[in-house]
Specification:
Layout: E1 3-5, E2 12-14, E3 16-18, H1 30-42, E4 47-49, H2 58-67, E5 76-81, H3 96-110, E6 115-120, H4 129-141, E7 145-151, H5 155-168, E8 173-177, H6 191-198, E9 201-205, H7 244-260, H8 264-273, E10 278-283, H9 288-295, H10 304-314
Parallel strand pairs: 3-10, 4-5, 5-6, 6-7, 7-8, 8-9, 9-10
Antiparallel strand pairs: 1-2
Length: about 325
Amino acid sequence: MEYRRLGRSGLKLGEVGLGSWLTVGHAVDEQATTEIVRKAYELGVNFFDTANVYAAGRAEQLVGQALRELPRDTYVLATKVFFPMGEKPNQSGLSRKHIHEQAHASLKRLGADYIDLYQAHRYDNDAPLDEVLRAFDDLVRAGKVLYVGVSMWTANQIMQAHALAEQMNLNKIVSNQPAYNMLHRDIEKDVISTCESLGVGQLAYSPLAQGVLTGKYSGGAAPTGSRGADPKGEGMFMGRYLRKENIQRVQRLQAVAADLGMTMAQMALTWCLRQKNVSSVICGAKRPQQLEENVAASGKTIPEDALQRIEDILT
């Protein structure tokens, strides 16, 4: 495993991290979570990402439990706040109240004394930005949180947050967690360039496009047990990736991966990591064996001629 700095911070993350969205607490039970987390750790993964809303808090509990016997100074634990954790008006969003209460609830579920990276899961139009930044800063000053990040914020929102934090002498955002993969490249328009100028690193989630970029859907039908085979569960998030034109692109990309001596998954992860602003790619796993293939992408490069072939296929 090779490691990169998270934005302008001194924190170093493995190029491949382990996520828990749609896996832990759903398709992955307590025992399997422990096996997957321990395997990831053995392979050099030091970045573990979750969120309070994943499996209604269950993901935080299982991830925290799996990490508990490992030395706390050897891994980075990240979670998020924004989405509803109840039906009442103040049980969602980024108000000071919700941030404060959910930070402490997450700490309890995780069984941790502090959160390495606490992220605003989305932008909240109903909460004043100065209130949001101050609430996060207070958690940092209290030692409950070490670094602050966001997820799926626009370039303009990140720029405004950076300027306001500087004006108010608050801790600045060090990361953004966007969906980023060969089939979803929105951040290339302006988010990456903005973040590079501000010292904000990307933590790319869904780098395998919910499994589509592994090639397992290239035959047309979703394999039994895959996300795409469950349209009411995990598969409900896959609509944009399972379009006919995307499947055709993946079929053509498989030839490029073969020529490079890589699996499709490894090529897809390496492609994301070609962006130096990407600090880590966040992969989920249902089996420990999947981790070995994904982690093997760390340190790999794709030659310029192959990158051009990929670009021709994607465009």
